[in-house]
Specification:
Length: 307
């Protein structure tokens, strides 16, 4: 990836959830409601996991003559606060690497970020793969395939749905930024800031260390889970309630991290040896494997977006 100035070299990797974090709604429900299929979707949820139900719902809508462009138009109308856009743009300008980690899907996430001119600020999107098949139907697949024998993510935490353990993805992200990913000062790797709201955001919060920050949305499920056992989360917890908070808290954390990195660099200049980088072959082994090609694939799994 040809990154723009600062991306991948700063002190901070900011990882955003998508639904009710970047946008102020649930993307699946927003589309289903806008297309008048709420009742049918509720019926599908009685017998299917959420990820499978939304794929089936897209199949029913396609059979009725609804087009992919109609679905995309619904997504583009989803509410996104200008404060979120400002936070993304400012954090990027300060040299942060920005990522999305979401249990939505690549088509929905991509439609929103492109519409608001934000796609180029993100170096990677980890979400459920989506593609348009040869018949023009939108297909939505699980990030972790749980249908085949011995498949799935293997996490036993009840807050993780079968199609995606965000904790497993966060572990991979931490491995990536620990391998010559730039920045990090004397601490050995860059700091992570994770923002989320839902139950699925609890597992990745548990994967972070005292170096990192967790930004749960106050009054939402992940906040309740963290508050119920505060000692389980090692990262520095900084809650936010609305999008003014999100911008202020996130940029405050970035400022703290940049100051800390400068202090650590000053200590190195005073004669303390910086930690040796991980061997190049080890880093290459940790790079994510992209999803196999599918018809008109749109942002499958981890996709690096040119800036």
């Amino acid at each position: 990836m040809a990154a723009s100035d600062g991306v991948g070299n700063g002190a901070v990797v900011v990882v955003f959830d998508f639904d009710k974090t970047i946008i102020d709604c649930d993307s699946d429900n927003w589309v289903v409601d806008a297309l008048g299929a709420t009742g049918r979707f509720d019926e599908l949820l009685r017998r299917l996991p959420w990820n499978s139900a939304i794929d089936a719902m897209m199949g029913e809508l396609h059979a009725e003559g609804r087009t992919v462009e109609e679905v995309a138009a619904c997504r583009r109308a989803a509410p996104l606060s200008p404060r979120v856009a400002a936070a993304v743009e400012t954090a990027h300008a300060l040299g942060c690497e920005l990522r999305v980690l979401s249990d939505a899907n690549a088509f929905f996430v991509g439609a929103v970020l492109e519409h608001h001119g934000l796609a180029g600020y993100f170096s990677a999107v980890d979400t459920n793969p989506a593609f348009v098949d040869g018949d023009g139907r939108l297909r939505i697949l699980p990030y972790h395939d749980f249908h085949a024998p011995a498949a799935g993510h293997g996490c036993t935490l009840p807050t993780c749905p079968p199609n995606m353990c965000k904790g497993k993805v966060m572990e991979r992200i931490v491995d990536e930024i620990s391998c010559g990913g730039g920045g990090g000062g004397a601490g050995g790797r860059r700091r992570v800031v994770y923002l989320g709201d839902g139950r699925g955001d609890y597992c990745p919060s548990l994967k972070l260390t005292e170096r990192d920050y967790v930004m749960p949305r106050k009054g939402y499920p992940v906040w309740d889970l963290i508050a119920g056992d505060r000692d389980a989360v090692r990262g520095d917890v900084r809650e936010w309630a609305d999008f003014d908070d999100l911008e202020a808290v996130l940029l405050g954390i970035v400022a703290e991290c940049l100051t800390s990195e400068q202090e650590e660099d000053d200590d190195d200049d005073d004669g303390e040896a910086a930690p040796a980088p991980a061997p190049a072959d080890q880093c290459r082994a940790l790079q994510p494997t992209l999803a196999s090609g599918q018809d008109q694939a749109i942002l499958p799994k981890a996709v690096h977006v040119p800036n």
